[in-house]
Recover the amino acids of this structure.
């Protein structure tokens, strides 16, 4: 089983690297780095969805789990890709990428290629989780599967709601230069990130077998752990909040004091 998983992970990594190289080429052609995130989302959705249904078992219940996992992964990808694509067409470069390109200077093309290949590698734990959840050797859909799919649905719905609230806030000319702290954004500074993470937690819930008969399923826990680390400590919150502090200053510091960064909770009273 280890050899099969290792070969599969390598194949997933190669596929993601090839797709992300295409995303890098689109950036070089358009000069808009926003297509990097669009490409990563589509790549993870495609490879994750294909991995889920790569080998279809004859048992109807297992087939149902595989199709359901593939459908949710693809739905996650389509929703997020549509959001990123709309944002990229309207606003151009993501400020995080613009700052990196500025820092890299003449070496930007090479450094960006290295960066997108690293993103491809970062996607492997996620698509592997999709495979592990889909191929759990359980002959019937269990309460744990239902719970996992409910968490997945909540993640997709919550992220869509958060993105919609921010989009509506930004569309109002009266809010120009202000900070969105209404709706979900009053409970978390990054509710979209939280709900994206929640979806991968749902996949782990599906993959885990509490009876101990499918120990490989526990590897899927790497997906939410990895996503949490990336979003909270690496490529998500830190660069975005640095940008907000530069552009919003004191107002954003006040937002930081009263609103939790990641996990939603009621806003704190100003002291």
């Amino acid at each position: 089983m280890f050899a099969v998983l290792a070969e599969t992970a390598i194949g997933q990594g190669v596929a993601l690297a090839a797709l992300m190289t295409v995303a890098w080429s689109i950036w070089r052609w358009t000069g808009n780095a926003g297509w990097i995130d669009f490409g990563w989302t589509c790549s993870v959705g495609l490879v994750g969805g294909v991995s889920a249904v790569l080998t279809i078992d004859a048992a109807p219940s297992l087939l149902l789990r595989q199709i359901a996992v593939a459908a949710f992964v693809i739905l996650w990808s389509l929703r997020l890709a549509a959001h990123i694509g709309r944002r990229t067409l309207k606003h151009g470069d993501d400020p995080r990428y613009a700052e990196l390109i500025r820092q890299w200077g003449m070496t930007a093309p090479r450094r960006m290629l290295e960066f997108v290949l690293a993103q491809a590698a970062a996607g492997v734990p996620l698509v592997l989780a999709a495979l592990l959840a889909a191929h759990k050797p359980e002959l019937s859909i269990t309460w744990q599967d239902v719970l996992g799919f409910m968490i997945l649905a909540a993640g997709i719905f919550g992220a869509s709601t958060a993105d919609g609230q921010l989009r509506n806030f930004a569309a109002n000319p009266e809010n120009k230069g202000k900070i969105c702290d209404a709706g979900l954004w009053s409970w978390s500074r990054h509710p979209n990130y939280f709900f994206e993470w929640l979806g991968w937690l749902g996949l782990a819930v599906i993959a885990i077998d509490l009876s101990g008969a499918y120990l490989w399923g526990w590897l899927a826990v790497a997906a939410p752990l990895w996503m949490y680390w990336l979003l909270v400590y690496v490529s998500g919150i830190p660069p975005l909040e640095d940008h907000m502090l530069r552009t919003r200053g004191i107002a954003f510091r006040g937002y930081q004091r009263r609103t939790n960064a990641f996990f939603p909770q009621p806003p704190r009273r100003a002291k």
About this structure: Residues 2-258 form one domain. The chain has one domain: 2-258.
